[in-house]
Amino acid sequence: MYTRMNQRNLTSSQRTRFVEAVVELKRAGRYDKYVRLHAEYFAADGESGLRMAHMAPTFFPWHRQFLLVFERELQTIDPGVTIPYWDWTTDNKASSALWASDFMGGNGRRSDGQVMTGPFAYEAGGWPINYGVTSEKYLTRNIGRPDRPITLPTKAELNGALAIATYDVSPWNSAPSTQGFRNKIEGWTVSETKGGYLHNRVHQWVGGHMIGAASPNDPVFWLHHAFIDLIWVRWQRRHPASAYLPSRPLAAKDPEHGRVVSAQEPMPPFNVKPAAMKDHRRFYSYEEE
Fold it and tell me: In CATH terms, is domain 2-93+150-286 a member of 3.30.70.1230?
């Protein structure tokens, strides 16, 4: 078992080793499959078929397994590397060390959004965008969305979501009527001014490639989702009697039948059940524990 750390507490060596492992995975042609995988399992409410990575109860367990698979592949390059987490309620400025040139690199330039600094800048040569929903071959960001300013979620907003005792509720999607913890954290846009609830607002705040199904093109994706995973841990700790829902397969007459995975059904493409992912301590711990 290993420990995931807050990115702000990493040593210079730890930051370098994480970046180097990620860049080497890209250079070896082993990174982009994660971009494609996330895009493949990004199904929206209005689409037919199974919803898995988003807009469904499996949001937390699917991404936990997704991060684990990625982390294990990083560790084939450097066994000492783990995915750090980004607490965006604290490190909530573009001036945070997270965006330094020796780590995630900075914002995109005004003209085209191209990231010009850090190891993932196109001009550095090691981070071409090979698969995406747009045509740019370079990583883009638009931090804070200056044309329609947006802020990162606050501690108060996060605590409000953590107070919700029910994991998820019917109709198990992204509709405002879906009032469970999962949908509140995941957070889809409710208006241009509010810009979403929590998780989604972070994607929008970073902007560029972090918006949309191919968001793992931006390596900050992993740090964001490691914190989302930690949020699930905190919720489980606060509500020990609450469990993943739905607990049983939906009835054939349910409109969401065949679209939502229950606790004991396998999640493609991993063939792992949500119930098997409920305890992270089998795999890793978090620095705050």
Answer: no
Average pLDDT over residues 207-229: 96
Strand partners, 85: 6
Residue 125: Cβ-neighbour burial (10 angstroms; 0-12, 13-18, 19+): exposed
Q: Is the pTM of this model over 0.85?
A: yes
Give me the pLDDT at residue 126, please. 87
**172-181, 208-217, 236-245: the lowest-pLDDT one:** 172-181
Q: Domain coordinates of the chain in residue numbers?
A: 2-93+150-286
Q: Are the C-beta atoms of 182 and 59 separated by less than 8 Å?
A: yes
Share of the chain above pLDDT 90, in %: 85
Contacts (Cβ under 8 Å, ≥6 apart) of 124: 118
The closest of 195, 202, 163 to 180, measured between CA atoms, is 163
Q: What is the 3-state secondary structure (H, E, C) of the chain?
A: CEEECEHHHCCHHHHHHHHHHHHHHHHCCCCHHHHHHHHHCCCCCCCCCCCCCCCCCCHHHHHHHHHHHHHHHHHHHCCCCCCCECCCCCCCCCCCHHHCCCCCCCCECCCCCEECCCCCCHHHCCCCCCCCCCCCCCCECCCCCCCCCCCCCCHHHHHHHHCCCCCCCCCCCCCCCCCCHHHHHHCCCCCCCCCCCCHHHHHHHHCHHHCCCCHHHCCHHHHHHHHHHHHHHHHHHHCCCCCCCCCCCCCCCCCCCCCCCCCCCCECCCCECHHHHCCHHHCEEECCC
Res. 196 pLDDT band, cuts 50 70 90: low
